[in-house]
Design a protein that fits this description.
Distance between the termini of chain B: 40 Å
Helix content of chain B: under 10%
Order of helices and strands of chain A: EEEEEEEEEEE
Strand content of chain A: over 45%
Distance between the termini of chain A: 37 Å
Structural class of chain B: mainly beta
Mean pLDDT of chain A: 91
Largest interface: A-B, 20 and 22 residues
Number of helices of chain A: 0
Number of helices of chain B: 0
Largest sheet of chain B: 6 strands, mixed
Radius of gyration of chain A: 13 Å
Radius of gyration of chain B: 13 Å
Number of strands of chain B: 11
Strand content of chain B: over 45%
Order of helices and strands of chain B: EEEEEEEEEEE
Number of strands of chain A: 11
Oligomer: heterodimer
Chain lengths: 115, 109
């Protein structure tokens, strides 16, 4: 089973709202990732968690706040977003983020629209 | 700087063969990945190369030359469902994935 699930599939929010994106995997992976992808662009890495600890934060604005409650779950809390934050938000997981041969498996993404 | 180049768009005919090239300059090399992404969907893993040579997986094959900083993805017996973007990504010395901009492949009947 190489499935990563994400909820919700679609989200529309105002600039004053607070919402959360959720990601879950049951492959026993210990590394989880958040990416942001704009149309016709490659994914941009936002955050990496390895063994439930934040290992990479690619200078993401504080209005995005990641959380890893346990090894299977990854959340992204959103607050006071801007319209330019509208994008497809992808979650991925891999074995542990350290091995040279490991592959990242992506969830279906959450399409976010900020009004 | 780190750079991955691949053609923006390619067109091919159903049943034919197409080769999508990728060249890279990165700080270190720990493997090259090809992903397929249909419009509005998540990337799905296609192949991984870390040693020079050809990896074959059904209708898809991927080739790597580390000395030339070059890879290609070969798709045979093209089907309409192969219309998608194909993303080349290189894992650098920090084990981070550096992504190309993707090649949009259009299949015509």
């Amino acid at each position: 089973d190489t499935e990563v699930t994400q909820t919700p599939k679609h989200l529309v929010m105002g600039m004053t709202n607070k919402k959360s994106l959720k990601c879950e995997q049951h492959m026993g992976h210990r590394a989880m990732y958040w990416y942001k992808q704009k149309a016709k662009k490659p994914p941009e890495l936002m955050f990496v968690y390895s063994y439930e600890k934040l290992s990479i934060n690619e200078s993401v604005p504080s209005r995005f706040s990641p959380e890893c409650p346990n090894s299977s779950l990854l959340n992204l809390h959103l607050h006071a977003l801007q319209p330019e934050d509208s994008a497809l938000y992808l979650c991925a997981s891999s074995q542990d983020g350290l091995g040279t041969q490991e592959t990242q498996y992506f969830g279906p993404g959450t399409r976010l629209l900020v009004l | 700087g780190q750079n991955i180049d691949q053609p923006t768009e390619m067109t091919a005919t159903e049943g034919a063969i197409v080769q999508i090239n990728c060249t890279y300059q990165t700080s270190g090399f720990n493997g090259l990945f090809w992903y397929q992404q249909h419009a509005g969907e998540a990337p799905t893993f296609l192949s991984y190369n870390v040693l020079d040579g050809l990896e074959e997986k059904g209708r898809f094959s991927s080739f790597l030359s580390r000395s030339k900083g070059y890879s290609y993805l070969l798709l045979k017996e093209l089907q309409m469902k192969d219309s998608a973007s194909y993303l080349c990504a290189v894992r650098d010395s920090n084990y981070q994935l550096i992504w190309g901009a993707g090649t949009k492949l259009i299949i015509k009947p």
